[in-house]
Amino acid sequence: MTRTVVIAGVGSGLGASIARKFASEGCDVGLFARSGEFIESLADELDETPGDALAVPTDITDPEAVEAGFETVREAFGPVDVLVNHASGGAWKGLQDLSTEEFDQALAVGARGGFLCSQEAVEDMLDEDGGTVIFTGATSSVRGNDGALAFSAGKFAVRGMAESMARDLGPEGIHVAHVVIDGGIRPPEREVGSPEEYLDPDAIAESYWHLVEQERSAWTLELDLRPHVEEF
User: Which InterPro entries would you find in this protein's record (predicted)?
Assistant: First the structure.
């Protein structure tokens, strides 16, 4: 079955891996990012897969931009079946070094953006008898990180939103899942020391696809992914 997917917040790392995985499975993928340069090149790459892709430069903190972005995807591919809320941000600063603007921006990108995109996608899913919404979390989703107050606050907010939506929308046939990325993700464009201590973005993308394909009788609410190192 061809699915229409929106990935909100696509960069060269995990977001691109998720897009490649979904397109390889025959999905039509709308790529949202504030800047169009990278997502346009990624869309061209994904044209060679069983699926299709469309670059949609979108500021996900802007309600009108989000509405227009989803309408562009619908016109190209039809109603949205899957949403991946992947965008996040936040100055890595502690309480006394953090500005109000930096704090507000972290909440705007993660929580507000996830809220706006979810409203649009869920409207389609309710009309189409179901779908999947996945939120990308982090270690900071479950335990605050020192020197990262805004990022931690944004990730805590996203986790709470995902849990509330899962309970509200599950009976309507909409699977909402939150993924805790508990560790560093291997960067795509440089070598790292001790690569075994990093999560492989392509392997994470496989887990996202598994969430989409899960049977309703055994839906995952929260998935914790971490690298395999000795202390675990």
Answer: NAD(P)-bd_dom_sf, SDR_fam
User: CA 7 to CA 219: how far, in whole Å?
Assistant: 20
Sheet containing 52-57: give its strands across: 52-57, 28-33, 4-8, 82-85, 131-138, 174-181, 222-225
Indicate whether this model's pTM tops 0.90: yes
pLDDT tens, residue by residue, 28-84:
999 999 988 999 999 999 999 999 999 999 999 999 999 999 999 999 999 999 999
Distance between CA atoms of residues 148 and 155, nearest Å: 11
Kindly report the backbone phi and psi dihedral angles of residue 33, in degrees, each rounded to the nearest multiple of 5, phi listed first. -160, 155
Domain ranges for the chain = 4-225
Q: Rounded to 5 degrees, what are φ and ψ at 94?
A: -85, 180
Q: How far apart are CA 46 and CA 24, in angstroms?
A: 8
- List the chain residues with pLDDT less than 70: 185, 187-198, 228-232
**Hey, what amino acid is at 140?**
S
Residue 171: burial class (beta carbons within 10 Å; 0-12, 13-18, 19+): exposed
Q: Spell out the residues 6+ positions from residue 224 whose beta carbon is closer than 8 angstroms to its own.
A: 180, 182
